[in-house]
Every structure is written in C-alpha cells, then in structure tokens.
Write a structure and sequence with these properties.
The complex is a heterodimer of chains A (165) and B (420). By secondary structure, chain A is mostly beta strands. Chain A folds into 2 domains: 39 residues, no CATH class; 109 residues, Galactose-binding domain-like (Jelly Rolls). In chain A, 10% of the residues lie in helices and 52% in strands. The radius of gyration of chain A is 22 Å and the shape is elongated. Chain B starts with a strand and ends with a strand. In chain B, the strands form 8 sheets. Chain B has a 7-stranded antiparallel sheet, with no helix packed on it. In chain B, strands 8-7-6-5-36 form a 5-stranded mixed sheet, with no helix packed on it. In chain B, strands 16-17-18-19 form a 4-stranded antiparallel sheet, with no helix packed on it. With 420 residues, chain B is mostly beta strands. The chains are: A mainly beta (165), B mainly beta (420). At the A-B interface, strand 1, strand 2, strand 3, strand 4 and strand 9 of A face strand 1, strand 3, strand 4, strand 5 and strand 6 of B. Strand 10 of chain A pairs antiparallel with strand 3 of chain B, so a sheet runs across the interface.
Chain lengths: 165, 420
Amino acid sequence: MATWQRYGYIYLSIADRAACWKVGSTITTDDPHVGFGNILGSLTETPSNAISAYWTTKDLDFTDQDPSMANQWKTVDRVRLEYIDEYTSTPVSVSISIDGGTTWTTTSLSLGTGTGLVAYTDFWFLPITSPYFRFRIGSSDTDTSFTWTGVFAYYYPRSSHFKIQ
Amino acid sequence: MRQIFTIRPLEHGLKTEYPSANADSMGAHWPSMNVRANMHRIKKRWDYSVDRTLATGATIQYVSLYKKYDATTFLMILTDTDLVSHETSGTFSYKTDTYTTGTIASITGTAVVGSTTDWGTAAIAAGDKFIVTADHSATSEDDVNWATVSSVADGTHLTLTGNYSGATTTGAYKIRRVYSIPTDERWQFATVSDKFCFTNGNVNVQAWTGTGYASDLNATYAKNARYCLTYADRLFLADLDVSGSRNPWTLRWSKQGDATDWTDATAGEIEFIDTEDPITGIGQVGNGLFVYKKKSIIMGYRTGDPNDPVTFPNTRKGIGLWAPYSLVHAMGTNAFLGEDDFYMINGDRAEAIGGDIRPEFFRVVAKAQREKVIGFHNPHYDEILWLANTSDGQIAFVFNWKDGTWQTYDFSSTVTGFGE
C-alpha cells in the first residue's frame, strides 16, 4: 500500500498538537469521531468496513470533446480506467448504461499490486451502440480503497441518429 | 476509426444542476455514493474503526474536545442520557449529574433503604441509575451493577426495576440522574470560563469542570435552553425558560468570565420579537454573534462596553436557519440548511452553496424531514456533513468547502453523532 500521501498532512499535524497538550483522563489526538448509536468510531483512511462506493457520469454524447458527435450513434467496446495502484486486488466494476441508468452492462476486474504508481486497466465490453452513454465505476470491498484519476471511453462513430415521427 | 473520449480530471463529486446532454463530462450524476473528490481525483470516502462501545441503548449525539486553561484535555461524549468521558485503555466513565448524599442502610431485592438520604427533595426519578460505590469500577463502564430506579417512595426509600446485582448492600452509593432530550432535539455545548457547559430543552444547563460530576450551572437563570454559545467570554443561551415559562425569543448571557453568574452587571438578555418566529440557533461568524430564526438572521457585534457587550444593528429577512441542528461552525463562519437551499455566511450575507445538490436534496428529503437535518464539521477532510432522512434512508450530503464540491455518503448503520 502506498502511504506517501499520509505523511504530509494529517498525521504529522496530529502528532504536533498532541505533544502540546497536557493529557487529561482521555485523549492524545483530535481524530474525528462518528457515532452509530452506542458505537463510537474513529475516522481513518484505512478501510475495515464494507463500503459500496460508486461514481456515475451523466448521460454523455461526447460532444464536449467532439461536436460532430451530436446526434450520432457511437459504439463503445472498451473503457480504460486510470488509477493509483494503492492496494492489492481492489475489486472494480465498470458499467455502461444506454437507458439512463435503468439497466447496466458490467465488467468487473481485480486491480492492483500496491506499487503506489499510476496504472491503467482496460475493461472490455461486447460492442454497445447508442447516441448516449452513462458510465459507472464502482468498488465494493472491506479492506481496499482506491484513487481513480481518469476514465477513457473508446468508441467508433456510426451513422446519424434521427427519429421518425 | 476508433476514437477516445476522455473523462479527466475526475474533479466534481456531483453536479446535478447540469442538463444531461452535452454535459460537463467531469460532473457525476446522482446518485454517486461514498466517493469524494480530492485533488481532482475520485477517492473512496473515509472509513472508521470502533473506538468505544457505550452502554447498550445509548445514542451518541456529539463528541467534543474540552480543553481547560491548564491545557488538560478531555474528549467528551454526549449521549441521549449521559455525559461521558472517553478514558484511556478502551474504557469510558460517566460524568452525568450524580447524587451521593447519605449512605445505603440496606438493599433487599429491589428495595433500597437509605440513611440521611433525601431522594424526594433531590428529585431522584424513575429511570435514574443506582449503584453502591464499592461495586463500581468508575473507569470500566458500562459497569454491570448499575441498576435502574423504578420509583421513589420518600427521601429514604426507593425501588429498583430488578434485584440489585452487586455484592455490597450498605455504604456509599451513587445515583446517576440521567438526562432526557425532547423528541427530535439535540444537545448543544460550549466551553466557557473553563467549564464544559451543555444543554437541551429539557434540562437545567449543565456544567462539568474536569473533576467530579456535572451539575446545574445556575438553576434559576439557565434552564431548559435549547441553544448555547461561548461569545465575548460569556455563555450565551437562547430559547430558554424565563420566569418559569419558555421564551423562544430570548437571548441571555452570563457574567463576563463566569458562566455561573447571571445577575452581574455584565450579564443581560434581549428579546427578539420583531419577527414572530422563534430563535432556531446562535452562531459566531468572525467576531460577530449571529442569531438565527427560521426566515431571518440578526447580526450582533461587540461594543467594548462590558455592561452592554453586544449590539444587534442588522437584520436580514428572507433567509434563515430552517433546520436548527444543521448549523455548523466551520472556517470561522456558519453553514446551514435554509428553507430552500444550503447556505454559508460570507461577511454579513448568506450565500447559497447548494447549487450542485439542491434539486436532488429537495427531491428526496420530505418537507417534514428537512427541519430534522443535522450538520457536522469534519475538518480533517474539509467536509461539512448534513445528515438527512431520505426516501432512500439516511444519506449524508457532504460539502467539500475547499473544492466547493458535493458528495453523498451512506452508511451501514444510522449515524447519530459526530465530532472530534
């Protein structure tokens, strides 16, 4: 697990302040806490509970990068996820919806070896054709986390999209 | 020919105000859950490790640091019934108002007989907790020998709900006078003149000094206050009992440097009755004292005169604190849920900050639930969390004030409290 990011900001500042305090009955840090009924939790970056996390795009027609894609059919067959390789075997699912999020086509992979380096992985799909695409990247796990830095959708332009009234 | 559509950087958590087509590709759609924007990237939200497990049935509302003048620091936990000190080595102890006068003469089953006790006058009540001191390990709570008072017959006789489980039936004892909180209300707290003060609409304002147990701050002038704040070296209370009945328009402040004295020349009070709606909270913004109502904000400033310490020259009507416990102090200002949006005070104006999340918030949070929204500041992650009961269960609407982005979190258990 890469830990370079943690040393700069959070933990050093806690250590500094703790050293300035005369400890009463209780405490050596000012960690944030969360209460779940009678359970008091201490906030941490280290994952230990099952969390279902997902990030979803809007419906995209790709025109903000290529205006000629307006009202065009497109075929997507690959989504590349760029991430920081922080943990070993982080489960990641990439999903595509062409009906506004009602149904999803999903490809799931287990990513990473914990090198701490930027990495990318391709998620392949049977070709999906539509004028609009919604992408969702998700990870549901107990003991891994993630940092996603970019998503790249690979597509083929197709014919014009029109409706016959 | 294959082309590439790039979505990078992933810098926006949620931007629900944009139309779908031709949208900013970096704006996530509702719902995106348990991710946060950080340095133009998307990261999993923070997790937690279990720190303490309090008594079964307790509900944690707030966690707060209490720093005394001599730098002694305590971590206090306010539950729905108790003030709790977070001890080292995995334990906790109660600092709740505790009655110890007299001794126990005998305990037979559920019947407790006291000697030189005065339980009737002391208003020991059903639900309070009883233990013989010799059976009590004060730093290893929750002690299994705590028994619950069922009824009090007179000053020397009370009955427990079940047979007392401890080994000792005579001698010194403790009765923990557990607190109550009105439905949908919460504690408020402030450290003033070296005391940790806390209050809700059902109790005399309480104070703990770092030793012993909490007790009434001033049972005559500091009663049933819903809101409190430290300001100008005084304790300010709002929406409290005045001369025996609740006055939700009153703001009252203590003597300078002494939160127990409310009759000194440097103490005082004011009624805000120019708008009929009651006070819903008080906050400090910079050097100003802001009094919130549901649809207005009254702004006060220090005068430099110790006998007239604060003046309220400005009132802004139209925007107010709709959800009392949504008021959050962060970055030297206040943020809160108003009637139609989330707001943050900038100077003397409330600026709407909910643009990215506002439509979805008001879609999934019913009107009756909006005034129950509670807010917390999480400075370690530059976040303000507003917890709301939605049509999809409890959701935290999270504003990252550093990036100006919104995220949403959900949890496997209901979040009841927060703090540091």
